[in-house]
Fold this sequence. Notes:
There is one protein chain. With 119 residues, the chain is mainly β. The chain is 0% helix and 56% strand. It is globular.
Amino acid sequence: xxxxESGGGLVQxxxxxxxxxxxxxxxxxxxxMGWYRQAPGKQRELVAEITSGDSPNYADSGKDRFTISRDxxxxxxxxxxxxxxxxxxxxYYCHANYDINYQRLAEYWGQGTPVTVST
Length: 119
């Protein structure tokens, strides 16, 4: 199983980035997918998630600025980030989980892609 993130980098405040996560080795359409981030010295936190049924959910930090989406035909997860702020600086991780009847049967993480918001 591989989750490979891309699209991170350096961007000025107010700018935009689009992160991608290419999944392989899983039946992508069956998995709930998510983006997490970890800033230096802080715990990893949820940014946004999207269910296998295409229902999104956002943490307060990204609500109204971030958009999560998935393309099951391409086995790819996306995170469109607009109006970026310095506090969005972190390593962003792709996450996949497969639950049945509230039991977690499988869970995977990507290696992360760094995002730096700075002048």
